Amino acid sequence: MFCSKCGTENKEGVNFCKSCGNQIGNSVNATITNEELVLPASLLQRFLHNIVDIIAMYVFAFVVGFASSFLFGETTVFVLSITAFFSYHLIFEALFQKTIGKMLTGTKVVNMQGERPSFLALLGRTLARHIPFEPLSFLFYGAYPTQGWHDRLSRTLVVPKALTPEDVQRIDSEKIRRQKYDNKAGIIIVIIAVSLLFIMIIGIISSVVLASLEEARNKSRDAGIKSILSRARVEAELYYEKNLNSYSDFCIDEQMELLFGKTFGDKSINYVCNDSSSEYAVSAPVSEGGYYCVDNKGDVSVVGYGLTNQTSCSGIPTIKSLPKELKEVEEYVNSMYDLPAMIDEEVRLDRIYASYDNKMNFDYTMVNFTADELEWSSGLEDTISSGLISYFCEDSSFEYYREKNIPIKWNYYGMNKGLIGSVEASNTDCI
Q1: Three-class DSSP category at 120
Q2: Which of 167, 232, 315, 354 lies in disulfide reach of 417, CB 3.0 to 4.6 Å?
Q3: Helical (H) or strand (E) element with 387
């Protein structure tokens, strides 16, 4: 077939002369116009499939990680998930010539000849995506052709899936450059899209940095607490020798008050220090959860609760043992009283039965009912140990608090220590 304008011989079935671009016939792709061939993939298509692919990357990494968790250890699963995340584009474009996002927008990846790109080209395309600020590269080249660094460096294009290699080869770069300047709406869309993407990237980076700073501050704070309490152990032994082998008044010693006050007071850390002639214990909350506790017996651990009036850390369950202990107590209490007891280390409930039992120091039931809704069993309050009663109004009983509707707050400190209770009431309530 010869061109009527310049006389150049062209292949059968082509629409335009390869030399001068003159229209010489109609192809099977008659619905694809010259203008559409000049603009391989629209800006809107590329923007949409990029959004879809960002989501798909996380989903793909999660699926790979979840499936591999049944076969491999935690470290291997993590490595596989990260690899899947960063190789998402390479895997899908190598297998299908398109990602999930491109499938939805009806586009595909081709080389400059309109054919399937080589694996090395796709590898380079994927690696180029991770160049810093690569998403902003679209801004440097205008709205059309919509090419970023990952397109240009790998010499690839994203085109409508209907285009044949011959169609891609007929793309006129000169017309693309002219269209780039004429399409003001496209340029505006590029600027807006890139600006939003830039804001999103800055937001993500800021969140990561702030989270890292907060974590670093918490670690530094915890390290400071542990350092001070370790120093307190040394000071306690010096005090013990100086004070005729007694820890009495160690916590209110001028030097210790200065040490604790300067460290904990300035940071609003609620520490507790208790002492007796033979024992002492100090606890302070840590950001990792629970309380760091030290005592004269050498116990140094993160426990579930802070001290109240104890002079030892050994009776307080650790963070690891607490859930198991609470579950055992909960099951036992329910079997004894057939009540819906729910014992939670984070919650203090305000209605409690406590009695002494051979199986453990204190057997108790916690319920969420008010005093009027709860049918109190006679006799239970008579079996409460004197150790518990001493924390309340002198000579008072549970019946007294039920009648006054005064809530009793309790903490569970393990089976060896049982319950420590307190009443949030004014002195007049005891009159």
Answers
A1: helix
A2: 315
A3: helix 386-389
User: So what's the pLDDT on residue 96?
Assistant: 93
As given in the structure block, the two tokens for residue 88 are: 């998402």
Find all residues with CB under 8 Å of 148, minimum gap 6, and list them: 134, 135, 137, 138
How far is Cα 284 from Cα 272, in angstroms, rounded to an integer?
Answer: 7
Instruction: Choose the weakest-confidence range: 174-188, 208-222, 393-407.
Output: 393-407
Q: Is the pTM of this model over 0.85?
A: no
Contact 110, 147 (CB under 8 A): no
- Quick one: which of 400, 419, 300 has its CA closest to 355? 419
For the beta carbon of residue 346, count every other beta carbon within 10 angstroms: 5
**Amino acid making up residue 97:** Q
Number of H helices, E strands in the chain: 14, 10
Count CB neighbours of 266 within 10 A: 8
Q: Give me the residue spans of the domains in the chain.
A: 1-30, 34-182, 222-303, 322-430
332 three-class SS: helix
pLDDT reading at 345 higher than 50: no
Give the whole-angstrom CA distance, residue 146 versus residue 186. 10
pLDDT above 60: residue 409: no
What is the DSSP code (8-state) at residue 148? -
Amino acid identity, residue 99?
T
